[in-house]
# Entry
Amino acid sequence: MEEELDLPWGTVPPVIVELARVLAKRASENARRAERIKWPDKPGDVQEELRLAIGAAHKTTRAATDLRALLSAYAHKFHNPRPVISDLARAQDTSSQGFIRRYSEGTVDAVASLLSPKPDVETVLLAFPSVSILDLVDLGGTVGASAQALLDSGRYDAKGIRSRKLRASDTDEDNAARRVRASRADEL
# Structure
């Protein structure tokens, strides 16, 4: 797909910049959440504080990892001119081989989709788990319109994009059987 994209020399498309800002903000907000936890001055049960701190740390790391993957894949596969891979690797304290492992083929597909005139929102959500569909709606442009269309279609399942992808590849009969099993489970 990257051959089909005609990206202007030396510029980063606004959708990449805006999604990077969303991810950076998400990482920062979660880090601040961990910072604001009130720890008791005296010995006692701190299970709740530990749970909150670990959860915030996990979400911070996930958003930061998504940010690094987005920017690494964009820089290595799409930016014109392509940066020197050893420079990108050095910026992350890794080798050139280590740099390439900082993103997946799914990340490359998601970046290509973000840059496409017809973005596949589900591919983007799969590649960047710390991003919500509402984040994509807020990006505006073709990505925002595609995200809003997915919401409006009723095909969006808040329980998880991975299950949506699996259901999309199943037959209608498989989906009907799954709905029957789910309704039986709900009745129990």
Remarks:
- The CA atoms of residues 15 and 139 lie 7 Å apart.
- The mean pLDDT is 85.
